[in-house]
Design a protein that fits this description.
Layout (H helix, E strand, L loop, with lengths): L8 E5 L6 E6 L5 E7 L4 E8 L2 E8 L6 E5 L6 E7 L4 E8 L3 E5 L2 H14 L3 E7 L5 E8 L2 E9 L4 E7 L20
Length: about 180
């Protein structure tokens, strides 16, 4: 609206329309939009379910049909993972004793598992892909390794390091994460 009101509003337009539709007004709604997936014409958003944030997909076809995608009785779902030219939503993230990613498609699950084993780093995040999906920029890390970016070519099955995330920590010993649970 062009002025500071203390209110956050998200609006969207239907395909081939010039009219804006109200999606979320944070003074009234408890919906946190994350991303629009152009491949499915839907919005991925976090919304409370039984006291925890759950991931929903909301159609942007005018009906605003909500579909529960993922939830947990223990922790909040806290984000999404995207890939491809159209930035398709391919999974979601949450944290328990460590960061976890759940991919919707078996192809990404298999690729993440294989790359994790090859790199000996447990967390692999797909950052971006080329338009044709053959080149994948990924980030891999662990509790004792601050992480590195890699470029993976699916056709040639080649993997090369691009850059370290925190090179100043390269020769320093990092403490492993240890989960501590207690009643509160």
């Amino acid at each position: 609206e062009g002025r500071l009101t203390g209110r956050t509003r998200y609006q969207y337009r239907m395909p081939r329309s010039r009219d804006w539709e109200l999606l979320v007004d944070y003074q009234r709604d408890s919906l946190a939009p994350l991303a629009i997936d152009g491949t499915s014409n839907s919005l991925y958003a976090l919304k409370k379910l039984d006291g925890r944030y759950a991931l929903y997909r909301i159609s942007l076809d005018g009906n605003r049909t909500e579909q529960l995608v993922a939830s947990s009785s223990k922790v909040d779902i806290d984000g999404i993972v995207r890939a491809g030219d159209g930035q398709k939503v391919i999974g979601y993230t949450y944290s328990e004793d460590r960061r976890r990613i759940v991919y919707f498609e078996p192809e990404y699950t298999r690729l993440a598992d294989a790359l994790s084993k090859a790199l000996k780093l447990p967390l692999v995040v797909f950052v971006s892909t080329s338009a044709d999906g053959n080149k994948v920029l990924l980030f891999a890390e662990s509790d004792v390794d601050p992480g590195r970016y890699y470029l993976f070519d699916k056709r040639s099955k080649s993997l090369g390091e691009v850059v370290a995330a925190r090179p100043q920590l390269a020769k320093r010993a990092l403490a492993p994460v240890r989960a501590v649970w207690y009643p509160a």
